[in-house]
Specification:
Layout: E1 2-7, E2 10-14, E3 20-23, E4 29-33, H1 36-54, H2 58-61, H3 64-77, H4 80-84
Antiparallel strand pairs: 1-2, 2-3, 3-4
Length: 91
């Protein structure tokens, strides 16, 4: 397993050449993904929901609708070649 990215309390881990896992801070599986942009989007949404659950940053975070728009923009900002040509470093 190769940790690719950590976003908040979530890590995206490459488990083989074609599959990614999203894990929480305890290393527990949160989901499987075939594309990096989908894993990043889910990690972003979960991180925002965790912060929102604290209830101390509502004025900064905006509404859930605004968060959904932001996550769509984040997914669209990932270059297509990084989705289809993201090679594992270790085998």
């Amino acid at each position: 397993d190769e940790k690719i990215l950590t976003l908040g309390d979530y890590s995206i881990v490459r488990i083989d050449d074609y599959n990614l896992e999203l894990r929480d801070k305890n290393g527990e599986l949160q989901g499987y993904y075939g594309f990096m942009c989908h894993a990043v989007r889910e990690a972003f949404k979960r991180t925002m929901n965790d912060v929102r659950a604290l209830g101390v940053h509502d004025d900064v975070l905006g509404s859930e609708e605004q968060e959904a728009e932001m996550s769509d923009q984040l997914v669209n900002a990932v270059p297509v070649n990084s989705i289809y040509d993201f090679k594992a470093v270790t085998k």
